[in-house]
Amino acid sequence: MSRIGKRPVEIPAGVSAAIADGVLTVKGPKGTLTLTLVDDITYAVNPGDISVTPANDTRRARAFWGMQRTLVANLVTGVTEGYTKTLLITGVGYRAMAQGTNLKLQLGYSHDVDFPVPAGIEVKTPDNTTILISGIDKQQVGQVAAEIRRWRKPEPYKGKGIKYRGEFIFRKEGKKK
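-> structure tokens emitted (177 positions)
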């Protein structure tokens, strides 16, 4: 039994949800998100909440139950609050600057990296070493953050590179004399 799946997803005021043609659509103050429904799970939009239950007693239905409930909860949170990831840049001469729909990164390469920001994502640089990535789709925000981080992952000796806020980089000990 899924402990997460048992709890219904609360729908706050100003948010509406509807199921049509195998797609759950959630509309809120920040925008609209959709989720393609899985056949093994039964979804019900009630006044004030959305409930998710397994359609049958198969292993696949039980496995998808909690995950589908979490995906529905992510839709509701996305259209009400949105999601934000923060990246921190460490290294001499490493910096970032948001320019319209591009993010210009200087990461010690012989050239600057121009990262095109996808639609639906907002990138801000409050200072040269901080990147704020925000949007309503949790998966897309995380994917953009991972793609930016991939340009220069933190290295274990000096800790230089791009890391998530709150991420701990395990530092290796240097050579001993």
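The longest strand covers residues 83-90.
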